[in-house]
Write a structure and sequence with these properties.
With 165 residues, the chain is of the alpha+beta class. The protein is 30% helix and 14% strand. The strands form 2 sheets. It has a 4-stranded mixed sheet with strand order 3-2-1-6, covered by helices on one side. The longest helix is centred in the first third of the chain and has 15 residues. The chain starts with 13 loop residues before the first helix and ends with a strand.
């Protein structure tokens, strides 16, 4: 069976974003494949799983130090010369979102993937996202809210995951 979505230009509605997210989940489990018919489909990637990141992941380093560096091996986050102290959950949440750019996650998906269980109050995720945003600075939020759906890493987030440090 093939499902074709002919989407108008502009942002996805929350319901349509959820549909695309569910199709992406089916593809992740091996029950289907997501293909784009047009090369100009990157706006759909907000809800479709992106390819696995390379060992350096994220964006290339910028000389001006604006890129947020996640040093996965030592569990340290740096912004320029400044080290940003994060709790274990805040670090895991940021790393998870950075490893899955352009993908929207529901609160339940984040509880299962980051916390490792779904038996907590889903608003727990909101609290940790709010604390993470406060620590990372409010200039340009790295974690964005997709209303009615969940959270994702911002499209313009300048984040680089460094695996081996």
């Amino acid at each position: 069976m093939t499902i074709t979505l002919d989407l108008a230009a502009g942002p996805l509605t929350p319901r349509l974003a959820r549909l695309v997210d569910l199709l992406g989940e089916l593809a992740e489990t091996g029950e289907g494949v997501v293909r784009f018919s047009e090369p100009a489909a990157p706006r759909l990637l907000s809800s479709v799983p992106a390819p696995r990141p390379t060992p350096t992941g994220g964006e290339p380093a910028q000389a001006d130090g604006e890129t947020l560096r996640i040093l996965a091996g030592t569990r340290v986050v740096r912004h320029g010369d400044r080290e940003i102290p994060l709790t274990r959950i805040e670090f895991d949440l940021l790393l998870f979102l950075a490893e899955h750019p352009h993908r929207v996650f529901t609160r339940l998906q984040l509880l299962a993937s980051v916390w490792g269980y779904e038996h907590a109050v889903v608003r727990t995720v909101d609290v940790h996202v709010r604390r993470l945003r406060a620590k990372l600075g409010a200039d340009a939020p790295l974690v964005t809210t997709v209303y009615g759906v969940g959270y994702r890493l911002a499209d313009d987030a300048r984040v680089r995951v460094e695996r081996f440090h």
